[in-house]
Amino acid sequence: MDKITYEHIISQAQALPAKVCAVVHPCDEVSLRCAIEAFEMGLFQPILVGPVARIKQIAKEHQINISQVRLQHSPHSHASAEAAVRLVLEGEADLLMKGSLHTDEVMHAVVCTDGRGLRTERRLSHVFIMDVPSYKELLFITDAAINIFPDLQTKADIIQNAVDLHHALGMGIPRVAILSAVEQVTAKIPSTIEAAALCKMADRGQITGAILDGPLAMDNAISAEAAAIKGIRSEVAGRAQILIAPDLEAGNMLAKNLSFLSSAQAAGIVLGARVPIVLTSRADSSRARLTSCAVAAVYAHALAKQQQNLLAAVEGNT
Q: Quick check: 49 and 87 in contact, CB under 8 A?
């Protein structure tokens, strides 16, 4: 099978009816231009949520045409995040995209526990979808942005979120490597014990839709030669498609090492909320930012279909 590329994912999104994206506080050139480019490419229909006069001024200064999109006024970034979440709760938006505000401002509104947030029973997590030139397929890395020191159940949710995304993008049953420093289970390294427990959880149906193995060191996860030298026999070793980091620090350093030392590009979204959330960075390339939008758009359709199937099943049982 040929490598699925960013362009393939963008084409997937373009072939679907455009969902509505609430863009939170797009008050700089990068975030505003990305939202409008995504709109022009047919990835989604944006609602620009923020100080309208400021957005219009940025659009004018940088010659960005916003005449065909809806604007919704909010006085500042915190209010913009709350207003964007309300649009989702009221059924007016199907996904969120972070603009020129801090990630924690967006996430604070998303995880609000008084009925105004977007939490589900699943723990939120971030997934990087990385195009590494030297690797034979797109590589998912999680979690490098949300959960700092995830416990066992959180790691199970992190894995399931990534697996569900892999399926939604039409990439089939993924091979999941649970990373640690070594491939043997040892009480001296707690992440190896959790890796073994997660594999057993998959055996018992607590994690579904994937082939898991771990603990695996990074070389054994992505290099068939390294796995063979170590005598590791596994469907995952040397062929991993999803890498599960032991904690946020490890995941973040891994993703950034690939980006800055291996010329990889990193698209990414947050999963586990009622809708997918696009978290872009000013350091991202335009291609990576637009791919993040496309990934979120495709996943929004998958969530909508899942909800329809659940409703149909409930109605069929009544």
A: yes
